[in-house]
Amino acid sequence: MGEFTFKRLSDLEDAYIEQVCQIFVNGFYDELNIISSDKDKLIRIFAPSLIKEHFFVALDNNREVVGITAFATKTQASQIVDKEFMKEEFGNLKGRLLTSILNKKSTHIKKNQCNIEKVATASEYRGKGVATQLINHILSELPYEEFILEAMGANKSAVFVYKNLGFRVYKNLGFRVYKTRKQLIFHEKIGFAKRLYMKKEMKS
User: What is the pTM of this model?
Assistant: First the structure.
């Protein structure tokens, strides 16, 4: 594993926001390109939506962002996008769908829980332990009794990392019920139809 420095995004200059968005868009591009194939557009839209206090980054020796993760609590999301702005950029249907996904309320998070999300690593640093170290940093920095996260069932490498960190599957939403067929098709295309919920209880 490499040597990295870990910082909250709120402790860094605003210039780092674009780097965070680049890694986020590149890391989740397979899911996001159903909405737009223009990475610059996605980065431009996501940049003002980040709650900087809820993002951690890994910096290499050149102080470049090489990995990111975020966390949400019962009372605060890690990202809030403006629905009207999204509708203007993506059109009514895609804008509304993207807003509903990114702004989903954390109703499943309990008061003593923290939801880890948006875990992504720069392509040239994948396989070097960045995600593992970032999540370990969050586990040691944040004072919660239980940490939960979502994993796409098809992302076996991520599930493997989370299990090695002590997370276990407690809910499988592979057979989620959708209100409409259009909603199901859209979620299947962006990879959100089959999800695993995992959690780690912290020792006292």
Answer: 0.85
